[in-house]
Amino acid sequence: MPQSAVKQDAYYWRLIATALSFSVFGIGGVILLLVVFPLQSLLPGDALQRRRRARLTVSRLFMFFIKFMRAMGVLTFQFDGAERLGRPGQLIIANHPSLLDVVFLIAHLRDTGCVVKESLWRNPSMRGPVQACGYISNNGSAEMLDDAAQTLRDGQTLIIFPEGTRTTPGLPPTFHRGAAAIALRGAQVITPVYISVNPTTLTKAEPWYRIPARRMHYQLRVGADLQPAQYLAGHSAPIASRHLNQQLHQQYTQELAV
Hints:
This protein is an alpha/beta fold. The chain has helices at about 10-40, 45-70, 100-105, 125-130, 140-155, 180-185, 230, 235-255; strands at about 75-80, 90-95, 110-115, 135-140, 155-160, 190-200, 215-220. Helix 4 links the parallel strand 3 (about 110-115) and strand 4. InterPro entries: Plipid/glycerol_acylTrfase.
């Protein structure tokens, strides 16, 4: 058996712990939908305060979840530069190698918007959080671009995965131009986050129970800020969007190859 395929790090315990972790996640989402958010809606405050409470609740629960997985021996993680995230009008752009990427980001941000795939509105574990937190559906419409840009102009932080789906293992990320268009319409600053998972796991083609032979490690690194204004200077919006998207693709290809 190749060394890479040898089962290590208490493999069978990790399989049980992974099943337990995702069970906790799913049950927690249903409790949020049926109990927590309805109770929070009874508290005094306007729509903005309710959204902030919901986002803080989800952030804390996501942090509990990843720390629970670490305590159970399922994974380890390191997040370098997380303190630079969460600024007003900041568009956080991240690659998407794994199912848990958004969980790690939201866990480290107390009040952020997020562009998420449309199917989550039909998922009983995620429908409550995405609705209560005011996340934006990535349905590909012009309204989605407008809503995302307005979120940034309103001074919120926004997370987006320009690939639109999880990265195919072994291939560099391919970014759609929607994220660049949103950035140029509304962002005060663009901040890349480079995410790597070793060994590769929880990709689009892998079910949760196909765990790797050894414990997975998540590495998240916050990169240098990009200024939207420099791309708009002397260029039309479509050309500026193309240039920004090309630069992002080159940066991610280089950074993730290290």
